Amino acid sequence: MARQYLITAALPYANGYLHLGHIAGAYLPADLYARFLRLAGERVLFVCGSDEHGVAITIRAEQEGKSPREIVDHYHNANEAAFAELGMTFDVYGRTSTPEHHRVAQEWFLDFYHRGLLEERQELQFYDNDAGMFLPDRYVEGTCPHCGYERARGDQCEQCGAYYDQLQLINPRSLLSGKPPAVCPTTHWYFRLSRFQDALERYIDSHEHDWKENVLQQAKAWLKQGLGDRAITRDLRWGVPVPIPGAEGKVLYVWFEALLGYISATQLWAQRRGTPDAWHQWWFRSNEHQTVYAAFIGKDNIVFHALMFPAMLMARENYILPSNVPANEFLNLEGQKFSKSRNWSIELRDALADFPHHQDALRYALAMNLPETRDADFTWSDFQARTNNELAAIVGNYANRVLAFIERNFEGRVPTLDAANTEFIERWHRVVVDASTATPAQHAHIVASASDHFSAEERAAITALITGVDAVARNYRAFRFRDAVSETISIARAANKFFNDAAPWKTLHDDPARCARTLFTCMQILRALGIALAPVTPQLSERIQRLCGIAQPATGEPRNSESSDNLWATLPLPMVEQGTLVGPAKRLVEQITNEQIAAQRAKLGVRSAMQPQSPSPALITIEDFSQIELRTARILAAERVPKSQKLIKLTVDLGNEHRQIVAGIGKQYTPEELVGLDVVVVANLQPARLMGIESQGMLLAANDGENLVIVSPRGTIPPGSVVR
To answer: Does domain 619-723 have CATH number 2.40.50.140?
Structure first.
C-alpha cells in the first residue's frame, strides 16, 4: 500500500494580520515538514486557508466601519500574500466564505441531522433589546465565575482559561449597548459529542507513544471530565446559514464549520486540477493509499483537532483520522506575550517589509526557536545573531571559501581527479549504500572500513555527512524541527572543519592531486548542504544549488507529478560531476546591522527599558586611536579551555602568521561554529595569560548586557587586512 501525507495547518482568522507567533505556532513547522517530505520523494498534499466566519469577523467589521465581506476579503488577500512571500508551499489556500465551503458545511450538518446525531434544544441566552439581537459569547463581558476576572468573555476567561456558559457570568454587560442584557429563550442544535467518548478515549490511547505530551495531556483532561454535547449553531448574521426550516437567522457555529474548511479546500484543489473526485483519495480510507494525516496547530486549538474534529470524522465512518496533531506552545516576544492591543507584536508583513532580503533568515531564526515543547521567546538580537553568526558565518562562509578557491586555482570547475583517485569515488558510493541500512552508531565504523581509500579528514567529513543527513531526516519525520535544523547547521560546521583540516592552500603546490580531491569533496558536501537547507531556507538553498552547477534546483516546492525520486537519499553521495562549472563566489547572506535591530526594538518601545543609558565615555584623539592595530583574522581552530565555561582557545590566521588568542565567548559560541569565521582582532596587544594559556591578541565582540556577538567583517577580505 502506497503511503501519502496529508498536511493541514490551522485556518487563520481573516480578522487581522498574521504575526510571528502565528508563524512559529503552526505554519512554519508545517511547511518544513511538507518541503522535507517532497524532497524525500513522498506524495504530499498541504492544505490551508482562511477562517472567515464567526464573531471575531463581525467585531472587526464594526470596529472598522465595514461589512464582514470587506474585512475577510482584505485580510484573506493580505495574509495569503504574506504567506507566499515567506515561502509557504500550500498546495491550496481556501476560504470558508465561498459558496463551495457553505455547501460542504451544510451537507455535513444535514447528514448529522437526518442520522440523529444532532439534538434540538431550547435554551436561555443573553439578548440586547437595544440592538435587537441575541449576544454571541464575544459580544458580552462580565466577571469570571471561577477567578473573578472582571473582563471575562461570554464563553471563556482569558485570565484563567476556564470555559463556562455565558449565563454563569457575574454582572454581565453587552458590548453593543453597554447595558446588562436580558435573558430570552432561543433554539439551537447540539452535536452529540458524548456518544464518542469511548471511541475518542481509544483513539487518544492509541497515540500514547507518538504524540506530544502537551497534546495527550490536554485531550485526556477533557476526556476525564466527560465530554458533553456541543452546540453547532448560534444566533448570528454572518456565517453559513443553518439549512433547515425554522432556523432563520441562525448560522453554523464556526468551530464546527471551520474544521470542514480543510475538506472544502481539498475539494477546491481537486476541481482546479480537473479531477473533482480526487479529494476522496486524501480523506477517505482506501486499500490503495495509506494516508498519514498531520494536523499542525497551536496549543489553543488542541481540543478541536484532537477530539472535536476526530469525532466528526468518526461520525462519517469512512473518513481518515489525524495520525498526529503536532501542536506547538506559544512564542513570546522579548520575554512577553504577543499583544496587538499593547503594540507588543511583530506582524509578518512588517517583518518582511523591513527585511526584504531576509525571508530565509526569518524562517531560520524562528525554526531554531520553535516552541515545540514549551513556550519560546523571539528576540531581535537572536535574529541578528542567527543570521550573522550562523547563516552568514558558517554556511555562507563555507560556500565562499570553497568556490573562491576553485575559482582561483581550478578555473572555476570542480577538479578532475587523476586515475589513481577514481576508486575513491566508487568507494564513497559503496560506504553510503552500506550505511543506508545501518544504525547511526555504525556509520563511522563503515567509513573506517574503507580507510585505505580515505584520509583521516575525509573519513571524518564523509561520516559527518552520512550521519548528519540521516539525523536531519529522522528529526523531520519525528516532528522535531528545531533538532532537524540544528543538525543541518552541524553539517555546515563539519564542512568548515574539513576545509580547515585538509588545508588545500598547503597541498595546492605540495600535493596537487590531494588538493583536487579535497575540493572535489568540498563541492559534494556543499551540494548536500544546499539541498538539506531547502526546507528551512529555500532561497539560500536555491542559490547554493545553482552555484554547484545544478540547473533546476529542488527546494521542496509542490510539483505537478504525484511522485518523484527520493532526492534526500542522494545527499551523502558524490553527485557533482568532475569538471562542472561552478560559482562564482559571492556573498550569499546579507548581514543584519545593529542599526536595523535598534530600529525594531525602538518600534516595540524597549530601547530605554532594555538598554539603560550609560555615562558617555571620555573622548580620545585620532592619535590615540592610531595606536590600536586592528586586523582581520580567520579562525583556523578552536577548543574549549579545560575547567572554564567561558574561555575558548583560538588559532587565527593573520595573513603572515598564526596567533593563539583566548576569548571569553564560550557561553555564546561552540568551538565548531567558530572554525572558518572571519573576525577582527587587536593585533598589537601585549600578550596576557588566562588560566595558564598565553593569549596573543584580543577578539572584538559587541555586548549589550544580555548578548555577546562577535564582530565579523562584512564581505570577503583576506586575513591580515587592516581595519581603520
So the answer is: yes
